[in-house]
Design a protein that fits this description.
The chain is α/β, with parallel strands linked by helices. The chain folds into 2 domains: about 5-185, Rossmann fold, CATH 3.40.50; about 200-330, Rossmann fold (3-Layer(aba) Sandwich), CATH 3.40.50. The chain is about 30% helix and about 25% strand. The protein has a 7-stranded parallel sheet with strand order 7-11-6-1-4-5-12, sandwiched between helices. Strand 9 and strand 10 form a beta hairpin. Keywords: FAD, Flavoprotein. Its cofactor is FAD. InterPro entries: DHS-like_NAD/FAD-binding_dom, ETF_a/b_N, ETF_a/FixB, ETF_alpha_N, ETF_asu_C, Rossmann-like_a/b/a_fold.
């Protein structure tokens, strides 16, 4: 059919936000090729209203494989089901999120359908004249951005970083088709079953979902100086972030790291101090709604992306901002 497919994710019958982010990526690709966009969901107990939201967010068709055995993510079974769908419908390309499940699922599927896979993409496009999927991702330790294509095998497949694009607005005038499919028993891997779930202790910092992130880099000089940023974050009920340099120095743990080697974020407000703005860091924050940068180097790369920049010594600027915010709080503003 040469459609563009995106793989939706669900938990307990509710769609995850990354499902809509992928649709915004897929919509651009499908429009460029003048083809349809299809969202594929494997799960159980998902309502028609929930599936319809995939249409409202950009899908032309939704394929939902509905079975209680798909409620929990088991890669052996999920990969069998997705591979069977690909062999049946022959999509042009398949996009999944670079989440823990997407990063696990897609390599299995790539092997099963004998095609290539580019992981952790930050940009996607369609090559004029060939319709090859152009997949851009960091390479060589993040020092370059490489564009990769798979000219000899189909479907063309990629995983995309969460928060690297914004969902399309909800459009309840959009129409599309929802196809409910049953699960073939031979695709279920009965050797494996879910026995429990244990949350990773590092997930106490949900920086990807935060509306306000206050981050520091090498310019913070030492760990103790992050207290300034912590005070600022508390004024906004935000969370702390850090550049790779700061994390490598042990000033904050890895779950706080922002950038291609850490977390890609999309908060309403991103404030960074002492961060020069490497290409890897900028790629991890570019979908932030507002970016405020504080740096004493007026030529720092971060100012190319910032909506508001302050050129100055952060150890003078941040205490003044904190003092002003504290005064506003006392005045009841």
């Amino acid at each position: 059919m040469s459609y563009v497919w995106t793989i939706a994710e669900q938990s307990k019958g509710k769609l995850r936000e990354v499902s809509f982010e992928l649709l915004s990526r897929g919509r651009k690709l499908a429009d460029k090729m003048n083809t349809k966009l299809c969202s594929v969901l494997l799960g159980s107990n998902v309502s028609d209203e929930t599936l319809q939201e995939l249409i409202y967010r950009g899908a032309d068709e939704v394929y939902f494989v509905d079975d209680p055995q798909l409620e929990n993510f088991i890669v052996e079974t999920h990969s069998n089901v997705l591979s069977d769908l690909i062999k049946t419908y022959h999509p042009h390309s398949v996009l999944a999120a670079a989440t823990s499940s997407g990063r696990t699922l897609m390599p299995y599927v790539a092997i099963q359908v004998s095609t290539g896979l580019t992981a952790d993409c930050t940009e996607l496009d369609i090559e004029e004249g060939t319709n090859h999927l152009l997949q851009t991702r960091p390479a060589i330790g993040g020092n370059i951005m490489a564009t990769i294509k798979t000219p000899s095998h189909n479907p063309q497949m990629a995983t995309v970083r969460p928060k690297s694009s914004r969902p399309l607005p909800l459009d309840k005038n959009r129409e599309g088709k929802i196809v409910r499919l049953g699960l073939k028993d031979e695709l279920v891997d009965h050797r494996v079953k879910m026995v429990g779930f244990r949350k990773d202790v590092e997930e106490f910092v949900n920086i990807e979902e935060a509306e306000v992130v206050i981050a520091g880099g090498k310019g913070m000089k030492k760990q103790e100086n992050f207290a300034l940023l912590r005070d600022l974050a508390n004024h906004f009920e935000g969370v702390l972030g850090a550049s790779r340099d700061a994390v490598d120095r042990g000033w904050l743990p890895y779950p706080h790291q922002v950038g291609l080697s850490g977390k890609t974020i999309s908060p309403k407000l991103y404030v960074c101090a002492g961060i020069s703005g490497s290409i890897q860091h900028l790629a991890g924050i570019k979908t932030s709604e507002y970016i405020v940068a504080i740096n004493q180097d007026q030529d720092a790369n971060i100012f190319q992306l910032a909506d508001f920049g302050i050129v100055g010594n952060l150890f003078e600027v941040i205490p003044k901002i904190n003092a002003r915010l504290e005064a506003y709080k006392k005045e009841g503003k």
